[in-house]
Amino acid sequence: MFFTHFSQEDLRPSYFEMFAQERLLPTLKPALRFVLQVFAQRHPRLVPVAMKSDELFTLLHFLLELNSLRKNQASCAEAFYGLRRGHTFSAREASNIVEQGPLSRTEIFSSLVCLVFVPYTKQKLDSLYEEASGHALADMFTGSQGVNTQQESLIKTLFVKLYPTFHALYELWFFLQQLLFLFEKTKYYSPWLRLQGILVRRLTAEELRAVPNQNVANSSSKLVSFVDKLIRMLKIAAIGGVFAFKFLEWLVSAENKMPKNTGFIPSPPVPLRPSSKGIQLPTDRTLCPLCSQPRRNPAVCVSSGYVFCYQCLFTFIERESQCPVTKMPSTIHDIQRVFHEQNI
Ligand SMILES: [Zn+2]
């Protein structure tokens, strides 16, 4: 019923089909980041690649969506759920020549902007906000204003103050549009589709039958056929990766939830070895490896486990995006303050 059984006239997808397809590809991003981090731990040469995992994902996402929009008139996830982009839900109108034709170049371009570049920009703005607000927190701890000029710190303060409102309004805009779609008060699932005037509808029975023939017809040239196969394999690997990652996530959480009655406490993990390119550890391990002074506001770099002064570590990670000792890719979210009897 979900995919195949629908009346000829009712090609409107359900809210749940749209919701599921929207969540499909973003799940791949943490999976890709995790895989790159594992490889970077074993092969330090891959550290710069692991640090650019967002950009790598965006490039991969762009190629998959461009191919899918041109071939299937739908995004990858929409094509997976048997949907396509058009201008009407009605099968009778869908047989109209304009509807059956491919998406125009402008529509493909605007779809790519909304599917790939808008989420990327939003994510970068989110990280910028977290970084700027974290910086404000560090200034609060140290009482310093950093090395920013007055103009820079004014822009930063304004951004930190205004961004949460912008973020809330943006989310509200999506929430209201989706609520209207759920109650069938609008034809558009997302505000971006509304702005583009593009509807997402289910494939008709004829279109579903025509998909295999289309692939045969398109494989006339050997090179085209090879590229086509490669992209199809990449698409299957991407979607397979999502499911594998979700399965592993479930497995790990299920294992963690299992009652542990054995009384066995595993030995603590072996510390990561300092990198030859990292800073040297002081002989006195109570000192901060960055400033060689007794640690002030101790903070641990979660990705490696080494402890520094909060300010030293924050400034280093913000500049270098890696652990000072092991060179493991790290963000300011990997900084955790350490509380013990001396500094509570
Ligand atoms: Zn220090």
Automatic annotation (TrEMBL):
Major subcellular site: membrane
One BP term from GO: protein import into peroxisome matrix
Pathway assigned to this chain's UniProt record: Protein modification; protein ubiquitination
Start and end residues of each Pex N-terminal domain: 24-252
GO CC aspect terms: peroxisomal importomer complex; peroxisomal membrane
Entry GO MF terms: ubiquitin-protein transferase activity; zinc ion binding
Membrane topology recorded in Swiss-Prot or TrEMBL: Multi-pass membrane protein
Keywords: Membrane, Metal-binding, Peroxisome, Protein transport, Transmembrane, Transmembrane helix, Transport, Zinc, Zinc-finger
Places the protein is found: Peroxisome membrane
Family statement drawn from the similarity comment of this UniProt entry: Belongs to the pex2/pex10/pex12 family.
UniProt function note: Component of a retrotranslocation channel required for peroxisome organization by mediating export of the PEX5 receptor from peroxisomes to the cytosol, thereby promoting PEX5 recycling.
Protein name: Peroxisome assembly protein 12
